């Protein structure tokens, strides 16, 4: 590509004059004339190195982005100061001339230009670092590791250099560090590591920063290092870790987000990044960032006004810095939990924010295009004279140059276009950052007084039942570890909370529950800031705690869920039933395969997040009780599938794959019983699962540590148990109960499916066949699923002695009731009392076991409601009985659900359920 439109006459004449003075007698070359007319820097370069003209006109060179070495290995070891500095400066001049030509004459995409400049700059810095190290080592020797390898100084590039987005005439912000405090070896005299690396740092800065006859390579700024200008020039890993953990400030977190090590990766890089990551990215959603960035932006705005900077496309409202603030704010808020946001590149971060649904693709495209437009203008301004400027020109020559490059008729058109771009950026900036937190309006002084004086009677509409909870909360604060910032935020937050509690007419239980949540997060200021910065999140917390004690407990146990309260549109809209498996797959694409600890946390966080959404929709009536169970069941199935995949990868990596298996057809399946099998999973349900496979002992895995296939599947099942039952910081995943497998707790954890069939035919008790009624395969390839369906049907359709079957079922029911029922004359145990849920389930199971031999269709479903419907349709029971049983079953489950959400156990007033109890009891008598 090239800028094809003609230069204005005055510019063309300037280029012609310069060309003629450099290349007298040579044919005019229009692109070179354009270059000379548009850039005084290019004019100076070609005056000192006129032969570079032909190099610029080489199409192969223009397309080439290979970064050559400024100094070869011999030069690194042998060149003295003046020779090394000359080579570095001539390299910089040559390649910066090439970028100027690409941008001014070839319309090169700005994203490519800034990436190329960054790569060239990184190579210059790395070569200077290697040269400085070699020069100091000649005198002092060098620090060596245990294997005798030299330990290089690490150079951290900050700002746009770190982000791979360096501008044309930028200075560079660097931080130096070294991994180990070991003295040098092999020199005239040994020196301490600190002394050695300080000398290397000084020599590196001199090589780049010192002005010679060939100019400068870069202006080097070291003020971002720990302790700023008063700090040591270079620090050990240990000293840096101590500094950032104990003294690191918010602006340093913002700056360090861009930090990128320069040079060739070595074994110490990972250690360095791991050291800094907890400082930059918090594990929780971190809204303290917003307030900090807001203050930084206000300071910049004040500086712009103080220096009377006008037409500044970087620092002005809507400038480049505001795009950076928007993106980096969102990165820092969420990057601790969403690792794909941990990138130094602004353009990559924008794409990942879209992938994570933090920003719409439309918003991201607009920001990206506006950012690149402003960066292109900045690039032009700096290429004119190789000066670091972001201010639009006030002289006629450079205004004319900018008009030509932006293809505008006059400078006024340029200004209008740039102002439109900056206005769009500023609008997005104000949405994300804003300038002021929402504060309580003046009429809310009553809530402030109530909080400060610990006296709810000072409010206009006092709820005196809150007084005890408020006093208790205040008393706990005296013992809590809460810093000054946390206390400030809490003093702003609590009046807002009291107001919202008043508006919603919250009970004392709800107030106590919210105080319990706050007690859990009181020492973690970021969570308090999340609630303060997002009034909508605070409102949702109050509303949900008023609806459900379980939700309050759930949030207090896992405060990371507070993030879910920010967007009500997501909170009250559970994932579609068919989408859970796809969503968890997408969620795990961001997590490394081998990181088991992170995978276990991710499984638990996925469950907790989606359970909260389901509970929110449940508590507010968006979902019926049957739909709630459908969602909780679909969620459990998705998690089981993902856990199987994780366990499979771990086992295959260690032992290889069993014969004739693939990622899609593992030869392994999971059978669900009970509530999971019957689509009735609750919020705190355990999962009754049985693991089966289709291999025998004669086949082996194909790995280096080959084992027989039965052992492989046993280890796979054990790994699954570990994934589910291990208690991490986020608790257990689900309680897995595998006692329904053949031979119970003494049986194999994973069994061949045909052995399972044989057991069901020859050894299983009646209660095990009852359990089989509510079973289905929730994970496994089609061939296993089809075989299990046939086995289940064959077993359930066996001919049975009706009297013995009745006796077995009734005896088992009486035994359960004797051990498990908790009701009395006043309270009815919804589940275990006579006339309750379990009676309905036993009636349903009996109907299948007794009648399936005649009506195989009764084995089609595994849930009670559809089985009862089929039983009535086939004449096994009357339609009236079916309707009464289903009505009672749904009523009980709805009541049980509401009580679970409020942690009220399972015993309800008997008088309120008399009709259902009597009808179910009558049905039991009729059937048995």
Q: What would you say this structure looks like, in words?
A:
Helix 32 (about 710-725) links the parallel strand 9 (about 685-695) and strand 10 (about 735). Helix 8 packs across helix 10 (about 195-210). Strands 2, 3, 5, 6 and 7 form a five-stranded mixed sheet that branches. Strands 8, 9, 10, 11 and 12 form a five-stranded mixed sheet that branches. A two-stranded antiparallel sheet has the order 1-4. With about 950 residues, it is mostly helical.
SSE blueprint:
Blueprint: H1 9-22, H2 30-38, H3 40-48, H4 52-56, H5 59-63, H6 73-78, H7 81-105, H8 110-140, E1 141-143, E2 154-157, H9 159-162, E3 172-178, E4 184-186, H10 193-209, E5 220-221, E6 234-236, H11 237-246, H12 250-256, E7 260-261, H13 268-280, H14 288-306, H15 320-334, H16 346-355, H17 361-383, H18 396-406, H19 411-432, H20 445-453, H21 467-477, H22 484-503, H23 508-521, H24 525-533, H25 535-547, H26 549-557, H27 568-571, H28 580-588, H29 596-619, H30 625-655, E8 668-673, H31 674-677, E9 687-693, H32 709-725, E10 736-737, E11 750-752, H33 753-762, H34 766-773, E12 776-779, H35 782-796, H36 802-820, E13 827-829, H37 837-851, H38 864-873, H39 879-901, E14 907-909, H40 914-927
Parallel strand pairs: 3-5, 3-6, 9-10, 9-11
Antiparallel strand pairs: 1-4, 2-3, 2-7, 8-9, 8-12, 13-14
Helix pairs in contact: 1-2, 2-3, 2-7, 7-8, 8-10, 11-13, 14-15, 15-16, 15-19, 16-17, 17-19, 20-22, 21-23, 22-24, 22-25, 23-25, 23-26, 24-25, 25-26, 28-30, 29-30, 30-32, 33-35, 34-37, 36-37, 37-38, 38-39, 39-40
């Amino acid at each position: 590509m090239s800028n094809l439109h003609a230069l204005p006459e005055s510019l063309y004449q300037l280029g012609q004059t310069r060309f003629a003075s450099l290349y007298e007698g040579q044919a005019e070359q229009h692109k070179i004339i354009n270059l000379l007319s548009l850039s005084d820097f290019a004019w100076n370069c070609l005056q000192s190195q006129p032969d570079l003209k032909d190099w610029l006109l080489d199409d192969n060179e223009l397309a080439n982005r290979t970064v050559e070495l400024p100094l070869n290995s011999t030069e690194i070891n042998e060149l003295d100061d003046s020779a090394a500095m000359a080579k570095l400066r001539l390299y910089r001049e040559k390649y910066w001339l090439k970028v100027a030509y690409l941008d001014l004459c070839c319309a090169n995409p700005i994203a490519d230009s800034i990436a190329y400049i960054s790569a060239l700059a990184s190579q210059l810095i790395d070569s200077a670092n290697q040269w400085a190290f070699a020069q100091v080592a000649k005198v002092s020797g060098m620090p060596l590791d245990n294997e005798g390898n030299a330990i290089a100084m690490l150079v951290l590039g900050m700002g746009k250099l770190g982000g791979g987005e360096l501008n044309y005439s930028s200075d560079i912000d660097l931080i130096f560090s070294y991994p180990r405090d070991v003295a040098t070896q092999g020199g005239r005299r040994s020196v301490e590591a600190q002394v050695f690396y300080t000398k290397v740092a000084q020599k590196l800065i001199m090589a780049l920063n010192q002005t010679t006859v060939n100019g400068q390579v870069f202006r080097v700024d070291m003020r971002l290092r720990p302790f700023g200008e008063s700090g040591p020039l270079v620090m050990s890993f240990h000293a840096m870790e101590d500094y950032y953990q104990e003294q690191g400030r918010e602006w340093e977190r913002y700056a360090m987000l861009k930090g990128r090590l320069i040079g060739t990766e070595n074994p110490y890089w990972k250690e360095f990044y791991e050291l800094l990551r907890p400082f930059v990215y918090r594990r929780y959603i971190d809204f303290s960032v917003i307030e900090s960035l807001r203050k930084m932006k206000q300071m910049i705005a004040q500086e712009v006004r103080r220096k009377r900077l006008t037409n500044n496309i970087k620092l002005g409202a809507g400038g480049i810095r505001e795009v950076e603030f928007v993106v980096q704010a969102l990165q820092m808020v969420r990057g601790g939990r969403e690792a794909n946001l941990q990138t130094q590149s602004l353009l990559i971060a924008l794409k990942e924010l879209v992938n994570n649904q933090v920003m719409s693709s439309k918003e991201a495209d607009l920001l990206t295009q506006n950012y690149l437009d402003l960066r292109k203008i900045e690039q032009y301004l700096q290429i004119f004279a190789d000066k670091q400027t972001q201010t639009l020109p006030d002289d006629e020559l450079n205004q004319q140059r900018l008009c030509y490059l932006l293809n505008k008729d006059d400078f006024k058109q340029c200004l209008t276009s740039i102002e439109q771009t900056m206005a769009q950026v500023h609008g997005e900036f104000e949405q994300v950052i804003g300038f002021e937190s929402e504060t309580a309006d003046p009429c809310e002084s009553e809530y402030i007084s109530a909080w400060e004086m610990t006296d709810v009677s000072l409010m206009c509409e006092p709820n005196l039942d809150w007084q005890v909870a408020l006093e208790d909360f205040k008393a706990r604060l005296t013992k809590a570890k809460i810093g000054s910032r946390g206390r400030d935020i809490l003093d702003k937050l609590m009046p807002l909370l009291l107001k919202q509690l008043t508006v919603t007419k919250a009970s004392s239980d709800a107030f106590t529950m919210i105080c319990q949540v706050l007690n859990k997060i009181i020492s973690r200021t970021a969570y308090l800031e999340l609630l303060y910065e997002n009034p909508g999140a605070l409102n949702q917390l109050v509303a949900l705690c008023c609806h459900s004690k379980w939700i309050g407990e759930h949030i207090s146990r896992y405060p990371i869920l507070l993030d879910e309260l920010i967007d009500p549109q997501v909170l009250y809209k559970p994932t579609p039933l068919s989408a859970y498996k796809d969503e968890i797959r997408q969620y795990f694409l961001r997590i490394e395969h081998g990181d088991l600890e992170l995978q276990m946390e991710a499984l638990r966080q996925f469950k907790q997040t989606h359970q909260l959404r389901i509970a929110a929709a449940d508590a507010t009536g968006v979902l019926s009780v049957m739909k709630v169970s459908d969602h909780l069941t679909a969620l459990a199935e998705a998690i089981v599938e993902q856990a199987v995949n994780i366990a499979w990868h771990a086992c295959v990596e260690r032992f290889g794959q069993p014969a004739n298996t693939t990622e899609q057809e593992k030869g392994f399946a999971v059978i669900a019983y009970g509530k999971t099998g019957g689509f009735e999973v609750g919020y705190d349900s355990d999962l009754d699962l049985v693991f089966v496979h289709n291999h025998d002992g004669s086949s082996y895995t194909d790995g280096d540590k080959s084992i027989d296939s039965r052992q492989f599947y046993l280890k796979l099942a054990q790994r699954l148990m570990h994934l589910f039952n291990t208690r991490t910081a986020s608790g257990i995943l689900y309680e897995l109960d595998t006692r329904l497998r053949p031979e119970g707790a003494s049986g194999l954890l994973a069994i061949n499916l045909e052995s399972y069939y044989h057991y069901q035919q020859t050894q299983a008790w009646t209660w095990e066949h009852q359990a089989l009624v509510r079973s289905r395969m929730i994970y496994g390839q089609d061939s296993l699923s089809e075989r299990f369906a046939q086995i289940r049907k064959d077993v359930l359709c066996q001919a049975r002695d009706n009297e013995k079957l009745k006796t077995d079922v009734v005896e088992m029911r009486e035994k359960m009731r004797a051990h498990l029922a908790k009701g009395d004359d006043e309270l009815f145990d919804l589940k275990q009392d006579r006339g309750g849920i379990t009676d309905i389930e036993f009636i349903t199971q009996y109907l299948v076991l007794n009648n399936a031999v005649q009506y195989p269709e009764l084995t089609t479903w595994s849930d009670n409601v559809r089985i009862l419907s089929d039983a009535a349709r086939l004449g096994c029971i009357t339609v009236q009985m079916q309707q009464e049983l289903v009505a009672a079953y749904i009523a009980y489950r709805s009541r049980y659900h509401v009580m679970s959400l409020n942690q009220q156990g399972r015993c309800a007033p008997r008088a309120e359920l008399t009709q259902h109890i009597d009808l179910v009891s009558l049905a039991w008598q009729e059937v048995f």
